[in-house]
Amino acid sequence: MRMGLQIRRTTLSNGIVVVGAENHTSPSVVLRFSLRAAPILDTPATAGLAALTASGLTRGTKTRSFEQINEAVDAAGMSLSAGAGRHLASISVRCLADDLSMGIELMADVTRNPVYPAPEIEQLMGQTLTGLRQADNDTGAVADRQFRELIYPGGHPYRLRTHGYQETVRPMTRDDLAAFHAQHYGVNGAFCVVVGDVVFDDVALRLEAMLGDWRPGGAAAVDVPLPPRAEASQKDVVVPGKTQSDLVLGAVSIRRQDPDFQSFRLANMILGRLGMMGRLGETVREAKGLAYGVHSELDAGLGAGPWAVRAGINPSNVDAAFAGIRDEMHRLRDGGVTEEELFRAKNYSTGSLGLHLETNDGVAGLIQDIELFELGLDYADRYAGILDALNLDEVNRVAAKHIPRFEDTVRVVAGPER
User: Is residue 392 situated within a structural domain?
Assistant: First the structure.
């Protein structure tokens, strides 16, 4: 199956990459400008700073107040947002093609010229701290924090929460955000994705006019080291006032660019994603009634991300749930998947990508991954062939290699005292 996605790529005079696809079936446009100034740069003492800096971009610039930015956005019926994931800070615009010039102007202005006005930043930090307090009282978030702190050593860029912690965010000021922006925002590694009712070459010219004179500089690429294997362990964390427990078990796994990624993604889908959350959902939740919800996930990034199984459970069922998860992990690891399961996983994967590409936002998200992970501009057209080439023996070999034995995992339970 060919997706028919024609992706173009060019470079502005200062090195910013522009990559995108034309779609003239609707009069809308998505712009997504991505930079390296992301939480992967945070230290244990500054956890949350990169995310706050990104979120504060739209709170006012040298020429526009927060109110004026919102008025311009509302008048055009567009959306403008900024935020950060682990690897990238992104500024996103959705607008009609007729408003593209205003969208590019606003995107460039908030990216290059934020002033982080104290009243607005105090409000933003208050909202952030509220979210962090809620996370510290959420059993799933608490379990995830402890899990990452056990599988990644101190100083590793994947150990920290991307939005930080109460103790690191509370002391921050608008000066900290401004300093982070001055140091890390620049053209190094920056790229802009554009998808929609546009002429690609015309958009590149408009972006050159708005961004082409931006200074060289910004964050350098971060090397994500492979951490030493964490010692197998189990930790219980008491969260007062809770009646439900959340558990996480797993280990550091693979990078997105690992040759085994697609095979392992299919095996993981069969274990804990497909249908009613795969074999785990069918047995641990449905047949045995040991979990309110259970699934497995593979978070492969620029570095080796975690593979994990997560479940929400009655505290009295913790040991039984662990035993059920163990049995399914070992059954797939040692016995493999079936031809029928592999067929379903492949069909679901190709079908879901096709649906994903029905929207400009979906296409922009795929192109962002293509650029970040260097997948190749023809990745969408090659995708079905990549999956077709993965036979049962290959998927089972990779499953046996990368699904750990239960006894080798790190396990965390957060909830009431047991």
Answer: yes
152 has a pLDDT exceeding 80: yes
Confidence of residue 67 (pLDDT cuts 50, 70, 90): very high
Q: How far is CA 279 from CA 189, 247, 286, 299, in A?
A: 40, 18, 10, 19
Residue 194: give its domain's CATH number.
3.30.830.10
pLDDT at 1 > cutoff 60: no
Q: Which helix (H) or strand (E) holds 346?
A: helix 339-356
Q: One-letter amino acid identity for 209? A: A
Cα–Cα distance for residue pair 222/301, rounded to 1 Å: 12
Average pLDDT, whole number, for the chain?
96
How many Å apart are CA 74 and CA 56, to the nearest integer?
A: 19
Q: 134 lies in which domain range?
A: 8-211
CA distance 283 to 14: 55
**pLDDT-derived band of residue 3, with 50, 70 and 90 as boundaries?**
low
Three-class SS state of 404? coil
Give residue-wise pLDDT tens across range 27-53.
999 999 999 999 999 999 999 999 999
Query: Domain check: are 252 and 331 in the same one?
Result: yes
Helix (H) or strand (E) holding 128: helix 118-136
Give every CB contact of residue 326 below 8 A, 6+ residues apart in sequence: 406
Residue 3 lies in a domain: no
Report if residue 2 sits inside a domain: no
The two structure tokens encoding residue 88 = 């990238």
The answer to whether position 85 is within a domain reads yes
